[in-house]
Amino acid sequence: MKPEIRIGYGWDSHEFKPGIPLKIGGVTLPHDQGLGGHSDGDVLLHAITDALLGAIAGPDIGSLFPPSDPQWKNADSAIFLKEALQRIKIAGYELVNLDSTLILSAPKIGGHAGAIRKHLAELCGIAADCIGIKAKTPEGMGTENAAIASAVVLLKGLEG
Ligand code: MG
């Protein structure tokens, strides 16, 4: 018998690079640098995607969307999240809530957290008050040139 509830955990980091847009949680934020990576570098969507995939013991984001595959170059990371949501549905689960923490020196996330939560709510099909966005600066970590995201999700079994 499958478990009624499952948790999942995801983590990701990307390096800041000049001259590209900064996308976090599917929202483009005003900043003089963006996050490098093969896709759009959306560190938060990648952490959430891996949390969803991990909750159903699925393959991780790098296995599903390898950076070596040119079709994912500059890809919108919402594609990855939607694939993970589809996979949890096929496995017989739905997302209950998610919580996340961002670690980055700049820009300040607080003023954008509402917009990110609203956008994630639409992407994930849950209410914005079921989405936690917390942000911290990298005190003593020496990771000022990177953005780090971690996320946890709770899934419950679909009825019937
Ligand atoms: Mg990534």
Write the layout of secondary structure elements.
Elements: E1 5-18, E2 22-24, E3 27-29, E4 33-35, H1 43-55, H2 61-64, H3 78-90, E5 93-103, H4 113-124, E6 131-136, E7 146-157
Parallel strand pairs: 5-6
Antiparallel strand pairs: 1-4, 1-7, 2-3, 5-7
Helix pairs in contact: 1-3
The structure holds magnesium ion (MG).
Magnesium ion binds next to strand 1 and helix 1.
Structure description:
This protein has 160 residues and is an alpha+beta fold. It has one domain (5-157): 2-C-methyl-D-erythritol 2,4-cyclodiphosphate synthase (60s Ribosomal Protein L30, Chain: A), CATH 3.30.1330.50. The protein has four helices and seven strands; from the N terminus they run ββββαααβαββ. It has helices spanning 43-55, 61-64, 78-90, 113-124; strands at 5-18, 22-24, 27-29, 33-35, 93-103, 131-136, 146-157. The strands form two sheets. Strands 4-1-7-5-6 form a five-stranded mixed sheet. A two-stranded antiparallel ribbon has the order 2-3. Helix 4 (113-124) links the parallel strand 5 (93-103) and strand 6. It is globular. The model has no long low-confidence stretch (mean pLDDT 96). Magnesium ion (MG) is lined by residues 12, 14, 37, 43, 46.
